Amino acid sequence: MDPAYEEKALHALFSLRKHTSKLSPVLANKIFDSIVKQIFLMSADLHSSGKSSFYSSVMRMYEYYNLPDCDPNVLNKSKIKHYISLMQHKYILHWQHSIQHSKKLEFYNTFKNENTPSCYQELASKLNKRKELVKFKIGNHKLMIETGRCSQIPARVNRRCPTCGSNQIEDEIHLLFHCPKYSIFRDRFYRVTRKH
After folding, report:
1. Nearest to 107 by CA among 138, 81, 76
2. Which of 54, 134, 135, 157 fits a disulfide with 43 by CB distance 3.0 to 4.6 angstroms?
3. d(C-alpha 139, C-alpha 147), whole Å
4. 189-196 long-range contacts, Cβ below 8 Å, gap at least 24?
5. Are the C-beta atoms of residues 79 and 69 closer than 8 Å to each other?
6. How would you class 182 by CB atoms within 10 Å of its CB: exposed for 0-12, middle for 13-18, buried for 19 or more?
């Protein structure tokens, strides 16, 4: 079977799901579950013949997360819930290790030490404002602490603020609390955040 056929079958499946929603829920679920099972079995056949498929991705996921009882044919709701819990736990461990051992994420680690939604997501109602806050928080900006890294200025202490001439490192803390050149923007930012 052609992997492109599998992709078309998945698209048809989602389309069918939309149309069967008009039927009684019990009948719609029986039809949907039957078709899903057939597509899953076709995907397993592709995998066993050495072709990449959805089933192949599921098997790679089992290996990566070291999930027990590696037989997707006998999945039930409790196993799925357990697997999701294992994957979340592994992700959180990876996330914690990443922020604790990265110089680049030092500022991020100052404010974010647990894997929960950030409060600024409610403050910034527009998506582009939230994106800018996230980019700033993770060091995706044009301060010398980052641009110096790209410009081959090896020592952090040499990545000084070119704007104010204070001889301080131009990092997020300097921008938010110390740099006199940014005081107008800083005051405006504080006024906006105080309103919320």
Report:
1. 138
2. 54
3. 10
4. 193/123, 196/122, 196/123
5. yes
6. middle
In angstroms, the Cα distances linking 183 to 63, 66, 168, 176 are: 52, 51, 16, 8
| Alpha carbon 17 to its chain's center | 27
Instruction: Give the domain ranges of the chain.
Output: 3-97, 120-195
The rounded radius of gyration (Å) of the Cα atoms in the chain is 25
Contact by Cβ (8 Å): 99, 90: no
Count of residues making up the chain: 196
Q: The tokens 């999701």 sit on which residue?
A: 84
Report how far residue 139's alpha carbon sits from residue 61's, in angstroms, rounded to the nearest whole number.
30
Question: What does the block give as tokens for 45?
Answer: 């056949």
Binning the chain into helix, strand and coil, the percentages to the nearest 5 are: 70, 0, 30
pTM of the full predicted structure?
0.49
The Cα–Cα gap between 108 and 106 comes to: 5
Alpha helix segments (H runs only) across 66-164:
77-100, 106-111, 120-123, 127-137, 144-150
Smallest CA-to-CA distance from 107 within 140, 129, 150, 132 is with 140
DSSP 157: G
Which is it for the CA torsion 28, 29, 34, 38, positive or negative?
positive
